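Async update (no meeting this week)

Hi team, since we skipped the sync, here's where things stand on the single-chain job. The sequence we agreed to prioritize is pasted below, unchanged from the tracker. I ran it this morning and attached the output directly underneath so nobody has to dig for it. Comments welcome in thread, and please keep replies under the output.
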Amino acid sequence: GRPGAICITNLHKKEFYLVEIVVHGFNDGPFFFPANTWIHTRNDNPQSRIIFSNQVRWKASIFTITNPRWLKNIRQDVLLSLRGNGKGERKKFEMIYDYALYNDLGNPDTDPDLARPVLGGSKRPYPRRCRTGRPPTKSDPSAESRVEKPHPVYVPRDETFEEIKQNSFSAGALKALFHNLIPALMAALSSSDSQFECFSDIDRLYKDGLLIKSEEQTVTQKLLLPTVLGNFLSMGEKLMKYDIPSIISRDRFSWLRDNEFARQILAGVNPVDIQRLREFPIRSKLDPETYGSPESAITKECLEHELNGMSLQEAMDNDRLFIIDYHDILLPYVKKINSLKGRKMYASRTVLFHTRSGILRPIAIELSLPPTPSASRKRVYTHGHDATTNWIWKLAKAHACTNDAGVHQLVNHWLRTHAAMEPYIIATHRQLSSMHPIFVLLHPHMRYTLEINALARQSLINGGGIIENCFSPGKYSMELSSAAYKSLWRFDMEALPADLIRSRYYSDDSSVTSDVELQAWWDEIKNEGHPDKRNEPWWPNLNTKEDLIRILTIMVWTASGQHAAINFGQYPFGGYMPNRPTLMKKLIPQEDEPEYEKFLLNPQYMFLSSLPSQLQATQIMAVQDALSTHSPDEEYLGQVIESHAHWTNDRHIASCFEKFSARLEDIEEIINRRNKDFYLKNRSGAGVPPYELLLPSSGPGVTGRGIPNSISI
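Output:
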């Protein structure tokens, strides 16, 4: 007969990595059993592993396998083993996928100031993460004890990667960054940490570098690292130089211009928050008893003064007014954040005007503080023609950029891609057999996301981590992310139009509803992966082929295009701190304040002293550099690597994939052609970087382009 599965028992003392098994001797050619999995030693776990053939067929009507019934039973047994029993601490060799709250971000046993609230539940809703089962902390039984660097956090064995090709994975570089470079930067700068006093101080990071001494001499030089990190690790003492970010590589002063500020809202690293201004006056939805009058301080007269003779209504009717509104998501946190040392922020609104010449221009920025009993504390800033007004306008733009940087990192980047994808991945492994066609479709888009997320919880978003130290919200960063999940996140609003996937295996709608594995998968995503949102009315049904297309489109887009668009431009745009500061240390000085006189005497120093310190800037620049780096073995959308060459033996499916790949090549040509169109002024012109973030292909390194299949960095 035809083999449907192979049972493997590892009698060696160590695990090994199995790529595939090929069985020859059949009239119609060899049978392939794609594996790409670690096979544990029997010393760790006596249970054998099962590898399924890629030639197993599914009946479109009832979605059961045409092979003998015993194969269906084996498939269910494998899924049960992957789910585990929800008990005990997970071990490195295990392949168990389960859910847990975000209760591992704080470390109260080390320092009470590092205690952080649990995310997940009615008070602070959040997606679920992969369960590790570590014991609770001594001081807080609701918090899970932490595994600190350099020790790894558990993820299911096949989700880890460094042991396979340690010299080529971006996350290996990220680990080296956290374990080596960041401590060295802190040692070198913490005792004399100071502000940048002039712009030349910032330029020296790219021209002269920082003198850093490394105690680590054992890190392999073969590891693909961002340039800055590679230089640092190559010798014991080094002038560590940063690459010049693309935002200033063509035009050093472009970041000062209003049109570049606006251009980056469309073509920069966070292009997802701009909206058409649909209603005026602009109103808040926050409780007026707590946050004062809901009406914005931006008036009709203020806007019409900037509309070149056009009325406000005419501008709105012709879709020429746009807004980035962070007022409601930020205002509840402003008072708490401003009480932190070295943090000062506002809740912001930015209104932009699309001019008749095709340029997008900021025309008003509203910055708000929590109201007092006697004042609303909302101020509106516009660009001016005198020196003082121009410098205040620069400070207002810097505060708006800081808010954009925080929302980008905590909401659009971490929450909407990394955190939202994790439950999809866990449910896929728990409910869909590896031979299920939807598992096969999603598998490339799940690569290494759990490992990256575990590393982020260990060193990036944790209490006292890089994000808290270098971004405005500080210790309230993840609480703000939870608030955004509660008020803003909707599964059905997370994708481009559903035109990326077409039905293949399902002959009619009844084949969707009768697929037991598929229905269990969708139920688990809602009820266990995102349980705090389980009762929302916007969850799509899964009753038809169109429903399935819509759901899969959202998942594939989130893992590929969405993450690429908001991740790989982090260093090209954020590597020059004045362009996109991650925090501000001072409020804008007012005329009746002592700081105002100092501002008039030296506005440049006032501007630079409001930005992150040298230590904060160099830390976040190093992290952005690592996060923006593609590894040499990156798997890009529309490509199939050699080790997955036998992912399907269905020629119809392979042909459809080839057409999709060809379409991506066409899209790349379209983007390149548009970048050369002189009439598209937001993507071409003197010193203007071309828009490349969604070009599908890329080489290794910091390229500012390329769409990987998955969130692998």
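Quick observations from my side:
The two ends are 44 Å apart (CA to CA).
The first strand starts at residue 5 and ends at 8.
Reply here if anything looks off.
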